[in-house]
Specification:
The structure is a single chain. By secondary structure, this protein is α+β, with helices and mostly antiparallel strands. The chain is built from 28 helices and 32 strands. It starts with 21 loop residues before the first helix and ends with a helix. It holds the Pfam family PAS_8.
């Protein structure tokens, strides 16, 4: 049938028209009066059918969309190439991206870690009619990742094969797994898992502890069945197939609360366990593949009456019961043994009579309250047995349960004598220095405070004792020798003081003695002299003998302080001054000494700013050839002039600088100034004068000395031979690789290295041999006594012999007489310095001395 001509419509739909307008087009066609009636009716029926189909399709689409978006997990539709065709609301929320940013993109936009051919196994599973499951990590819009389990299945979408992927967020499950593992680790019940072959898969810490397995050893390491014997509750050996885990695997059901004994043959230990075994099935399996066992240690509950009696005896705990009407006292065997096996009390009053008077009243009062007010009690009581000997008991008691009339009281008695003894030991240890056995700091402070508060005491004195040269021995021979020295010193002090005072190790190598001041304040001084006498003999270590003396400061209350800390502080100040002045002596605290302490603080304050204020200068003492008196070198000596303090000699401020640490900065200044002066003399045409500079031990340790010296020499274009560095003997004991490298580096520069004041300290030849040094300086402490003092002569001869045997140069210090010069020449000492030749000279005076020597041909 042809379309009528002249119709307004060329067809039902114009090309490109929306299919949704088809029902309207059918309606317009049916309204055409030129069409036959049957055709118009057919068009109307078609319009109605089409409208119904569209309505049903719209409803189906709405149902699909509602269902699609109602799924709480992210759901995505993928085409065959992995392009995302659709994404539900949950997916947009989970990935933190708008839907339009994902639809049309490859699935890699959600999971950038997927391999290149990741869809191959997916389609393989789909073609086999199965769902593909995998755990991967997806990415949110902000780049953060989260674990998911993806289930992928195939379906047709709009007539073409597609994939639907449901992603389940595993974050909470992973956190739950972590919490589950943490719970397993902190549970006090043992948990063990083993497979059907008896191999242990897992054991929590409680399982290892309950089975006596050492830390670091796994259950698998101890699973050798031959090491264990299973014990039934009746004490007979239990067959292995009767064990709860074996039964649970065999029967496929839970075996609850079974008492099992496990005896370890090698360790000879028996464990009684209450075990519940739970079989575990694999997914889809009908037989258990492993079993989980939960168990608790019930060894303490597995005791019969005979064992219980033995436990009472071992724990020293017995029971008692009192008939309140008759005062009759019933005691278990252990309770009777605690109170006296030969004559245990038969009544409560008899027991009370065994107690000390104060404890009798306490127990009577507690018993009365228990009978009248139904109150329990817990008392520690001390008494004496009828057969002799003291006892300490802990008595716990109260009304018997279920006795409303309170006709009986019962409880326990525990022997706590050992605990009281241990408490006494702990109290003593809390007051005792563990190394020396003397009182410790807290104990002596407490005792001093009590003495100063006691009005019956006429006066109290504190002796503050410090060991001279202890640190040197400790550094030379090590801490073990230092501890041995402290123990020996403490013994000597204890023997010297005796009952005259209390002694404490106050810290390090410092001791404190608290005693009565005595009549005319002479008692403390006598104690101090006795202590000094005790240090008259040397201390021997490894066949070496050391002279260790003591410096003592004395302060007395109330004149020198009305509080413990003040008294101790002032005694410390007196000790420090004694050590500074004389050593091996004692000194009383005085107000003048307090002023001296303030002066010391003042010196240290000015010393810290001395370099910045240009207050230091150097003088140079000539080192001469003892035969010709020709000047061959100079030693740089520091001097300090402060506008407020005046001229300060080195022995007045070097110790301060050492104690404050300023010596490191001062030493660096001296080194640079000495090199600058040597360069100035050279530039004046006086030649290259070697200048000796002292290096502090703290400077040696606290600085890269070799690098610093190299830099200073380079600054003034000096060769290393223009510089000599003098170290104290303390450096000899530093046998560390860094020390040896430093000395080697200095020697490679040509710097002369010597040991100053050799012979005053502990100078092991082994140390001396290993260090690459050039010479020794013989201390003026010994030079001053020659040639008359035999001991000084012997020391000088020994040092000269050491220098010759090791091929080292030797310089004598402190030469003040012609007799000393002749003696040293005869001894073979080539070089010396001292007032006989010149004191420390200003740079210009030293230069003049050099010129005069040249003019005279020296």
């Amino acid at each position: 049938m042809s379309r009528p001509t002249g119709s307004a419509d060329a067809g039902l739909l114009e090309p490109g028209a929306d299919a949704a307008s088809l029902p309207d087009a059918l309606q317009r066609a049916a309204d055409d009066p030129d069409l036959p009636g049957d055709l118009r009716a057919l068009l109307l029926r078609s319009r109605e059918a089409l409208f119904a189909l569209r309505t049903e399709a719209d409803a189906a689409h709405l149902r699909y969309q509602a269902l699609f978006d109602a799924v709480p997990d992210p759901v995505s539709i993928l085409d065959t190439d992995g392009i995302v065709l659709d994404l539900n609301h949950a997916g947009a929320r989970a990935y933190g991206r708008p839907r339009e940013d994902i639809v049309g993109q490859p699935i890699e936009v959600l999971n950038p870690d997927l391999p290149r051919d990741h869809l191959v196994p997916v389609w393989d599973a789909v073609h086999r009619g199965r769902t593909y499951v995998i755990e991967v990590t997806n990415m949110r819009g902000d780049g953060s990742r989260f674990p998911v389990e993806v289930h992928t299945a195939g379906f047709e979408h709009e007539g073409r094969p597609c994939l639907v992927a449901v992603a389940r967020d595993l974050s909470e499950r992973r956190e739950a797994e972590v919490r589950y593992r943490e719970l397993m680790d902190v549970m006090d019940r043992g948990i063990a898992i083993h497979d059907v072959d008896g191999r242990f898969v897992y054991g929590n810490p409680a399982a290892l502890r309950l089975l006596g397995i050492r830390q670091g050893t796994s259950l698998g390491d101890t699973s050798n069945l031959g090491d264990w014997v299973a014990i039934a509750p009746d004490g007979e050996e239990m067959p292995w197939d009767a064990l709860p885990p074996v039964r649970a695997l065999r029967e496929g059901r839970i075996v609850e609360s079974t008492l099992v004994g496990l005896y370890h043959r090698m360790r000879r230990e028996l464990y009684w366990l209450m075990v519940t075994a739970v079989p575990q099935y694999p997914p889809g399996g009908d037989r258990p593949h492993q079993v989980l066992s939960l168990f608790s240690d019930v060894s303490a509950l597995k005791r019969d009456s005979a064992m219980f009696d033995r436990v009472q005896a071992l724990a020293h705990i017995g029971g008692w019961e009192l008939d309140c009407g008759t005062d009759r006292l019933y005691l278990t065997a252990e309770a009777a043994h605690i109170l006296g096996p030969a004559g245990a009390p038969q009544t409560m009053e008899a027991l009370i009579e065994l107690l000390l008077p104060l404890d009798r009243g306490r127990l009577r009062e507690a018993l009365g309250a228990a009978m009248l007010e139904a109150r329990g009690f817990d008392l520690e009581l001390q008494g004496t047995r009828e057969t002799g000997g003291d006892f300490w008991v802990r008595a716990i008691g109260g009304p018997r349960q279920g006795d409303p009339a309170i006709s009986r009281l019962n409880g326990t008695l525990q022997d706590i004598a050992r605990d009281k003894h241990d408490e006494a030991i702990l109290r003593a240890q809390a007051r005792t220095d563990p190394l020396t056995g003397l009182l410790n700091r807290d104990a002596i402070l407490e005792e001093l405070d009590a003495r100063m508060r006691d009005p019956a005491r006429a006066g109290v004195a504190v002796l503050y004792i410090d060991l001279d040269r202890f640190k040197f021995v400790n550094d030379a021979l090590g801490h073990a020798a230092g501890d041995e020295l402290l123990i020996a010193a403490a013994h000597r002090i204890r023997m010297a003081v005796g009952c005259a005072g209390s002694i404490a190790r106050f810290g390090g190598d410092e001791f404190l003695v608290v005693c009565d001041a005595g009549v005319r304040a002479s008692h403390a001084e006598k104690v101090a002299n006795t202590i000094l006498d005790a240090f008259g003999d040397g201390f021997r270590f490894d066949a070496e003998e050391f002279s260790i003396t003591a410096s003592i400061g004395i302060a007395r209350a109330p004149d020198d302080g009305d509080r413990p800390q003040t008294l101790i502080q002032n005694a410390d100040a007196a000790m420090y001054e004694s050590k500074r002045r004389i050593r091996n002596g004692w000194l009383l605290f005085t107000p003048e000494l307090a002023q001296s302490q303030q002066d010391r603080l003042r010196v240290e304050t000015h010393l810290r700013r001395a370099i910045d204020n240009a207050e230091f200068h150097l003088v140079y003492q000539p080192q001469v050839d003892l035969r010709s008196r020709r000047v061959i070198a100079a030693e740089a000596l520091i001097r300090w002039h402060n506008r407020q303090l005046g001229e300060m000699r080195p022995d007045h401020f070097i110790d301060h600088a050492e104690s404050t640490g300023d010596i490191v900065r001062i030493g660096a200044w001296v080194l640079r100034e000495a090199c600058r002066q040597a360069a100035a003399w050279r530039d004046e045409g006086l030649g290259l004068v070697r200048v000796a500079v002292n290096v502090s031990y703290r400077q040696f340790l606290g600085d890269d000395l070799a690098a610093h010296v190299r830099g200073v020499l380079a600054e003034f274009a000096l060769p290393g031979s223009a510089l000599e560095l003098e170290f104290t003997e303390r450096v000899l004991i530093e046998d560390a690789p860094d020390t040896l490298r430093t000395f080697a580096a200095l020697r490679d520069m040509g710097v002369q290295l010597s040991i100053d004041d050799f012979g005053e300290g502990y100078s092991g030849l082994n140390y001396l041999r290993r260090l690459p040094i050039h010479g020794l300086k013989l201390s003026q402490l010994f030079v001053g006594g020659v040639p008359d003092d035999r001991s000084d002569v012997a020391v000088c001869q020994a040092v000269a012999g050491i220098a010759r045997s090791l091929g080292l140069g030797l310089v004598a210090e402190g030469i003040e007489s012609e007799a000393q010069r002749r003696f040293l020449i005869d001894l073979g000492v080539p070089v010396g310095q001292g007032f006989l030749f010149a004191p420390g000279l200003a740079p210009d005076d030293f230069a003049r001395r050099l010129r005069e020597g040249r003019d005279q041909g020296l």
